[in-house]
Specification:
Layout (H helix, E strand, L loop, with lengths): L1 H17 L3 H12 L4 H8 L5 H40 L18 H15 L3 E2 L5 E2 L1 H4 L25 E2 L7 H8 L10 E10 L11 E11 L4 H16 L5 E5 L5 E10 L16 E3 L3 E4 L1 H6 L8 E8 H9 L12 H4 L7
Parallel strand pairs: 1-4
Antiparallel strand pairs: 2-3, 4-5, 5-10, 6-7, 7-8, 7-9, 9-10
Bound molecules: adenosine-5'-[phenylalaninyl-phosphate] (FA5).
């Protein structure tokens, strides 16, 4: 019987050395150590031996059992390590230090237009500012000459948070902070404040082809001695002709905003229908794009700037609508659709 033990030991060695996957290994384990396995069968045969032989044979079978278990375990470890190595080899190779593959993504049309406007205004000496999306009532309204219960608040159906703050309904919400940030540092040293601040705005709007509840604006302010409406018109015209690379028909009409006096609505002739009227321009042929005006003395004063000494203009460009006009996007809702098919076709060079 001891011969059978050494034969089995050799067989185990040979079989394990030929196995190259985990499922074969498991079959081998069952065939030796399982309930009906050959080593278990040897143990069952012990009952026919006398006591002395039983002792020696039992000890040898137990040694064989431990040998088989140890070899199977070692083989299991070896096969698992090999499998991990193969999986690692099969993985696509990434080099995190290599430049991004520009073919895999594209900029959103609003980002493209925003960046283009930033470049244009930077070239004219404006700084680009960032501002929060959750703001206070003071920032969004009170500092802008819109006290509580003023009817002008009805023009912007605002999302209020439980803590009294709100989702900014206009980028004008950053005006007071910008005036306070640059007032003492710049204009008091003879350098005009020239800043733009693009940002996302939120209003509880019934959406249609030209209205979204989430849209982008880009605010701009310039404050110095002797700033006039002529400066405002110059910067607006320069910006539009740079963005569209052609002459665009614009009209300026009176507009009411409590934070400017006088205030204007700057409309552009609808580029979707060529001015004949369509859903994108509410069938008027014109699209409200960039309200603007001369900053109200109360707003300058609230920003720490003496309105008797300084004047300034402000504008609130509708970036989302500008992207629609520039790229011929008929429905504003397509811009928030997340549809890569429509959004990925625009590039910087258009
Ligand atoms: C304002 O938000 C003023 N803060 C703009 C301003 C700034 C006036 C500085 C004077 C001085 P208005 O609500 O009209 O104004 O919005 C400005 C522009 O944002 C609009 O002309 C339009 O282009 C865009 N806009 C407004 N509401 C929406 C909307 N729901 N969806 C898409 N674009 C919108």
């Amino acid at each position: 019987m001891n011969n059978r033990i050494s034969e089995l030991k050799q067989e185990i060695e040979k079989r394990l050395s030929e196995i190259d996957n985990l499922s074969e290994l498991d079959s081998a384990r069952v065939s030796y150590l399982g309930k009906k396995g050959s080593i278990t069968a040897l143990l069952k045969e012990m009952k026919d031996l006398d006591n002395e032989a039983k002792k020696t044979f039992g000890a040898n079978v137990n040694k064989l059992k431990a040998f088989a278990a140890e070899r199977i375990e070692a083989k299991n470890k070896e096969l698992k390590e090999r499998q991990i190595e193969l999986e690692i080899k099969a993985m696509p190779k990434f080099d995190i230090s290599s430049p991004a593959n520009i073919d895999t993504g594209s900029y959103h049309p609003i980002t493209l237009v925003q960046r283009q406007c930033e470049t244009i205004f930077k070239s004219m000496g404006f700084t680009v500012e960032d501002y929060a999306e959750v703001v206070t009532d003071y920032e969004c309204f009170e500092s802008l000459n819109i006290p509580k219960h003023h009817p002008a608040r009805d023009m912007q159906d605002t999302y209020y948070l439980e803590n009294g703050q709100l989702l900014k309904s206009q980028t004008s919400a950053a005006q007071n902070a910008i005036l306070r940030k640059y007032g003492p540092n710049l204009i008091k040293h003879g350098v005009p404040i020239k800043a733009i601040f693009p940002g996302r705005c939120f209003r509880n709007e019934a959406t249609d082809a030209c209205h979204e509840n989430t849209f982008f604006q880009m605010e701009g302010v310039m404050v110095d001695k002797d700033i006039s409406i002529s400066n405002l018109i110059y910067f607006m015209k320069t910006m539009l002709s740079e963005v569209f690379q052609k002459d665009i028909k614009v009209r300026l009409r009176p507009g009411f905003f409590p934070f400017v006096e006088p205030g204007f609505e700057l409309d552009i002739s609808c580029l979707i229908c060529g001015g004949t009227g369509c859903p994108s321009c509410k069938h008027s042929g014109w699209l409200e794009l960039c309200p603007c005006g001369m900053i109200h003395p109360n707003v300058l004063r609230e920003g720490g700037i003496d309105p008797d000494e300084y004047t300034g203009f402000a504008f609130g460009l509708g970036l989302t609508r500008l992207a629609m006009m520039k790229y011929g996007i008929k429905d504003i809702r397509d811009l928030n659709s997340g549809s890569l098919k429509s959004l990925s076709q625009f590039t910087d060079d258009e």
